[in-house]
Amino acid sequence: MYGRRMRTRLAVFLAGVLPLTVVAAPAQAAPPTVALGSVIPAPVDVRPSGGGFRITARTVIEAPAAARGVAEQLGEALRLRVVGHAPPRTGKIALELGKVNGKPESYRLTVDKRGVTLRSATTAGLFNGVQTLQQLVPVSGPRTIAGGEIIDYPRFGYRGTMLDIARHFHTPGEIKRHIDEISKFKVNYLHLHLSDDQGWRIQIDSRPRLTTVGGAAGTGVDGVGGGFLTKADYRDLVRYAASRHVTIVPEIDMPGHVNAAQVAYPELTCDGVAPPPRTDTAVGYSSLCIGSETTYRFVEDVVRELAEMTPGPFIHIGGDEAHATTQADYLTFQKRVLPLVTKYGKTAYGWNEIAAAPEANVAVAQFWSSATQNPAVAAAVANGTKVIMSPANLAYIDQKYDPTTRLGLSWAGYIEVRKAYDWDPGTHVTGVPESAVLGVEAPLWSETLRSLDDIEYMAWPRLAGIAELGWSPARDWESFRTRLGAYGPRWAARGVDFYRSPQIDWAS
Ligand code: TNX
Question: 367 CB under 6 A from ligand 1?
Answer without folding.
Answer: no
